[in-house]
Amino acid sequence: MGSNPSYFKGAKNPVEKVSWTACQDFVAKLKEKVPGQTFRLPTEAEWEYACRAGTTGDYCYGDGGGSLAEYAWYNSNANNTTHPVGKKQPNVWGLYDMHGNVSEWCADWYGEYPATAVDDPQGASSGSYRVFRGGGWYDNAGCCRAAYRDRIPPSFTNYVLGLRLARSSVP
C-alpha cells in the first residue's frame, strides 16, 4: 500500500488505524497481486464462527475471563500497545488473536439480530455503520468475548481497529 498506517509499528504487529474503506482498497490491490484467489473481510457470522472454532462458550476456550490472558492481549495485560501476532495461544483451529490485540472490521453493515435463530445469518443490506468484532488491547475482557459486536462509520480509523481477511480459491 506504500506505507504502514499503524500507530504501533512492528514487523509482526497487527495493522491498525485502517478504515473499512481502506481495507477494501487493500483487498483490491491484493487481488491484483495474487490472481486466482478471492480476498475479503469476513462476514460477521464467519468471524464469530472462526473465533469460536466449534465451541459455544464466551471465549474460544470456554466461559469466564479467567484464562483470557493465555489467548489475548487486552487492557489487563497489553501495557497500552499492540503485540506481535501469534504470541498467545491459538484457538483449536489454530487461529491467533481472535480475542484481543486489535478489534477487526467485518464486511457487514450493522443491524439488529433477527428475533429467531438462523444459520449463517446475513448482515443488514445497508446502513451507516460497519461491524467490528474481537476486542483489542484497550478493551476489557467482556469486549473480547466471541459474541461481542459493535459498530462504527466505515471511514473511521483508530489505533485499536484492524483487519483479518477471509480467502477462497477462485474456481
Strand and helix map with partners:
Blueprint: H1 20-33, E1 37-40, H2 44-52, E2 103-109, E3 130-133, E4 149-152, E5 161-162, E6 166-169
Parallel strand pairs: 2-5
Antiparallel strand pairs: 1-6, 2-3, 3-4
Architecture overview:
The protein has 171 residues and is an alpha+beta fold. The protein has a single domain (20-169), classed as Alpha-Beta Complex (paralog of FGE (formylglycine-generating enzyme)). It contains 2 helices and 6 strands; from the N terminus they run αβαβββββ. The chain has helices spanning 20-33, 44-52, and strands at residues 37-40, 103-109, 130-133, 149-152, 161-162, 166-169. A 4-stranded mixed beta sheet has the order 4-3-2-5, covered by helices on one side. Strands 1-6 form a two-stranded antiparallel ribbon. It is globular, with a radius of gyration of 16 Å. It starts with 19 loop residues before the first helix and ends with a strand.
Briefly say what this structure is.
The protein has one domain: Alpha-Beta Complex (paralog of FGE (formylglycine-generating enzyme)), CATH 3.90.1580.
* CATH hierarchy class name: Alpha Beta
What is the general shape? globular
What topology, given as strand order, has the largest sheet?
A: 4-3-2-5
Structural category is alpha+beta
CATH H-level superfamily: paralog of FGE (formylglycine-generating enzyme)
SSE sequence, one letter per element: HEHEEEEE
Low-confidence stretches: none
Number of domains: 1
Q: Please state the average pLDDT score.
A: 94
Q: In this structure, how is the largest beta sheet organized?
A: 4 strands, mixed
Instruction: Assess the beta-strand content as a share of residues.
Output: 5-15%
The CATH architecture comes to Alpha-Beta Complex
The number of helices is 2
Q: Helix amount, in percent? A: 10-25%
| Oligomer state of the chains in this structure | single chain
- N- and C-termini, Cα separation: 27 Å
Radius of gyration: 16 Å
- Extended strand count: 6
